[in-house]
Give the backbone structure.
Amino acid sequence: MLETVEEARDALSSVGYLPGESTALVSFLAARLGKPVLVEGPAGVGKTELAKALARATGRKLVRLQCYEGLDESKALYEWNYRKQLLRIQTEGDAGWDAVQDDIFAEEFLLSRPLLQAIAETEPVVLLIDEIDKTDQEFEAMLLEVLSDFQISIPELGVVEAKSTPLVLLTSNNTRELTEALKRRCLYLWLDYPDLERELEIVRLHAPELGETVTRKLVEVVHMIRALDLKKPPSIAESIDWARALLLLGADDIDQSVLERTMSIIVKHRTDLDVVAERVGVKLSGEAFAAPRASTG
Amino acid sequence: MSAGGGLYGGMPPSGPPGLAPRLLELADALRGEGLAVGTSELLDAFEALAAVPWTEREDFREALAATLAKSQEDRRVFEIVFDRFFFRSVERQAVERGLKEERFSGAERLDLEELRERIAAAIRGGTDGEMSDAARLAIAAFGRQGEGSGVIGVDVQRIRRTLGLRSEAGQQAQGTPDATGIPQERLREFERHLRRELERDLIRRTRSLPPARPLSDFDRALPTASSQDLAAVHRVVAQLKRRLATQGHEQRGRRASTHVDVRRTMRASLETGGVPLRLKHRPRRPRRPELYVLCDVSTSVTSASVFFLSVLHALHDSFRKLRSFVFVERISEVTDVFERERNFAAVSHRIASDAGVADVSGYTDYGRVWLEFLDRVVDDLDPRSTVIVLGDARTNGRDARPRAFGAMAERAGRTFWMNPEPRLYWNYGDSVIQVYEPYCDGVYECWNTRQLEVFATALTEPRR
Ligand SMILES: Nc1ncnc2c1ncn2[C@@H]1O[C@H](COP(=O)(O)OP(=O)(O)OP(=O)(O)O)[C@@H](O)[C@H]1O
Ligand SMILES: [Mg+2]
């Protein structure tokens, strides 16, 4: 499925993800070289979706580890099920501790978390480690170990060897520098906002019923807005949401008033809204004057 | 195009054997620019190249980028170095074969305004070939042949400035509503052509391949999304504020004592022919952030002034005791504008349109600005105040009035200057930064956030 760059591109497209040039290439390389990919880029450009699409395209299961501040090994690797262990200790009341101990540190009392799950599967999976920049360096070091050895050592049980090698994607929103060691281990993919034509295709894919002219206008306006100096520029996700909203409204053009009624879908900050209304709204009305359309009907 | 030896310069068609040494050279060049390219990256790169059809230029480039450049910043540098690297090998072959190409000339006969428009049109909608013609044209007409700065990135920015090219985003911030801005991607593409053509000129002039120079900061500073820059500026300024705040605490704890301030004593002595008549003392009170910022918004710093305005914007976010001024020929206080209006684009728009900047000729008159500043605020300045000037110190041949500047610096506790030009440029032409320097506690090259950080660190250092 990912045997060549073209195959990677086609496979991703066929499951509804339209990759840019480098995305297809890096996906292919990741599969070929068996290396994890570090994906960075602004919010909403399809970092998370890429992992999901790769899973769909390869027919693999997606295992996701969502990172957050304070995430530790017990939530990422494994944890002992204390409750169950306690129960066992109570029921085996009079057996000696040694016997009980052997008993309760067995696999059936182990809660495996995403990282362990990912390597314990017999069929290879796609492992998504989302927003790695939210964790700390210690966690990164642990992760690095797992990613280089593909084994996890559990003191009470021994070493769990990987049964398969996952395709690993790490995403980061760049809120902190990741360590050199981690970057060294990964291929790097920078995802940016797509160019006009590709975004047009993406929006068409997600809202095929929306008319061709509105769709194009929508993408043009979004690109215009991205060029403004906003706190939070609209992403692909917002373009798609907007397209769906316009579909519901039955809009067949985007003029100043349509923009003003719907722009809170693509721009969230109060001050951003003002800028968009002023800069883009005015432009849209100016156009209507310059080239009046038959809009009476 | 055939996949023969010429495709990537000196690379033979057989791939791997001849490729290896070329790749090692490329890795060296990247390392020279600060990328962490180690053995493991190189091995990955070889492995990746073995997997892609390396005769496809795009795949070849992307495969190398994915394995060698591991951040957005690295990726930017990679693009430039990659381009230059393989471009130079093609040129090297040309030099070896003694090939000469007819160069474009005759730009002198064209009307400059018309030329500007033609170039802008080519950048906006032209094909690759037209864009590259536009680049040659621009160099021929505006590049001051033979006396380039010696730093390609600097020349590129110079030409861009002379052409009055603005990106859409930058232009929005300036508040020009009509669509004369150029999409960022196209501008970046044009800069790439300029860089290439300038390099080719250099090779043609010297008839040999000059040693590759390290990229200047100008080279690295390709346009990024302006909102990102603004966020970065705000981060640096917030840091600055935190540092100043903790510093106040530390000093409050110590016993207040008077010390002779050698630096200020010397500075005062400039007025008495170098004889230190008056002893200056360090202020006893802890330094509270009390800032006066003077910002040059003339055309000569256009590319920098968006950055400077964002610095002002961020400062206003963090400091209450701050007065800000913008100037061209005259000075005008904009503290109110920043305090009323929090949106950056709106602020810039207001300042550009009606902040009352008396800008008749578009030429900065530093001397006059000092006099006006003194006239208005000198009574408010005291040893706790810090004056920061943002400007290129280009006087356009007018009287620089260093004494007036000295008088300002004298009243204020500390004075800093941030210059948006590379040091290489200072004191050439009408730049007179050296006459102001003795009155400053520090003069900094500053037009990006990294340099702003350096400045912020200096500003918060305890005074010696
Ligand atoms: N290339 C693409 N083809 C099709 N759909 C896309 C593409 N890129 C993004 N999308 C759509 O855009 C939306 C946002 O993508 P996603 O949530 O993956 O962004 P993200 O980069 O992970 O954002 P965040 O940083 O906020 O997590 C999704 O609905 C996804 O379907
Ligand atoms: Mg995501």
In short: The two ends of chain B are 65 Å apart (CA to CA).
